[in-house]
Amino acid sequence: MDEALARTWITAAAEAVRAEADRLTDLDAAIGDGDHGVNLRRGFDAAVAALESLEPTTAGDVLGKTGTTLLSKVGGASGPLYGTVFRALGKTLRQGGSLADGLQAALDGVQQLGKAVVGDKTMVDALSPAVAAYAAAAGEGEAAAARAAADAAAEGVRATVPLKARKGRASYLGERSIGHPDPGATSTALILAVLAEVTAGGVTARDSAR
Ligand code: ADP
Ligand code: MG
After folding, report:
1. By residue range, what is the domain housing residue 46?
2. Are 92 and 105 in contact (CB under 8 A)?
3. Domains contained in the chain, number
4. Does the beta carbon of 81 lie inside 6 Å of ligand 1?
5. Is the CB of 77 under 6 A from ligand 1?
6. Cα angle at 63 between 44 and 33, to 5 degrees?
């Protein structure tokens, strides 16, 4: 991933989050406090603004800057977790690691911070299978790996529906959290779907700036 692609990813992700904010908020209203879409939209809009004032740099710096911005602007449980994802991606790329390494570091960071495992009905249910799918398909190139990751994340979201939440606000609902997809898993799959699109060349920087 080069700097241009990293910028395109974040800009297009912000656009997707804006388009899906109401749906994410509705999902969070069903099993949480109804702020997930608003939280993420605020964070990604701030990240885009931060990148606009960032001098030409590297993909690692773009993603790291995104992480620190999300950390301070998203709020809620998901703010520190999304901050961790992008800071880990940034740090790994800056150190010369691959996107596969970065995604693994992101998952490790999220799990260290939030202590959730697959099946707890959190973003880990989307991120964990996505990281594995990316690694498995990495030999086929970035676009194919990102597509595999996005598909695995979407499948992970579907798998959260019958689960009872064991972490975060939704866990306070106990059995009543059953029957709804997890909002954070849903937004994770959305952001990975955007990664698949931009790596495939479907969205250019000019498209996403419009
Ligand atoms: P809050 O729950 O504070 O209102 P958000 O609504 O922005 O924060 O985000 C909720 C999402 O955060 C959940 O759907 C879940 O995916 C994720 N989440 C919450 N707690 C954890 C955790 N401990 N580990 C991983 N993800 C978590
Ligand atoms: Mg919430």
Report:
1. 3-202
2. yes
3. 1
4. yes
5. yes
6. 35
**What distance in angstroms lies between residue 170's CA and the mean position of ligand 1's atoms?**
8
Minimum-distance ligand to the CA of 32?
2
Angle at alpha carbon of residue 10, lines to 5 and 14, rounded to 5°: 145
- Expressed in angstroms and rounded, the spacing between residue 201 Cα and the centre of ligand 1 is 31
Nearest CA to ligand 1 atom 5: 36
CB 28 within 8 A of CB 37: yes
Query: What CATH number has the domain bearing residue 28?
Result: 1.25.40.340
- Residue 208 belongs to a domain: no
Is 19 within the bounds of a domain? yes
Examine residue 207 and state whether it is found in any structural domain, yes or no: no
User: Per the domain annotation, does 210 fall within a domain?
Assistant: no
69 contact partners, CB below 8 Å, separation of at least 6: 43, 46, 47, 50
Q: CA dihedral defined by 197, 56, 53, 191, rounded to 10 degrees? A: 20
Phi and psi at residue 201, to the nearest 5°: 85, 10
Ligand 1 closest atom vs CA 114 = 23
Say what the pTM is.
0.96
Name the CA dihedral angle for 134, 138, 143, 148, rounded to a multiple of 10 degrees: -30
- The residue count of the chain comes to 210
Series of mean pLDDT values for 10-residue runs along the chain (210 residues): 97 98 97 96 98 95 98 95 98 97 98 98 98 97 97 98 97 95 98 97 56
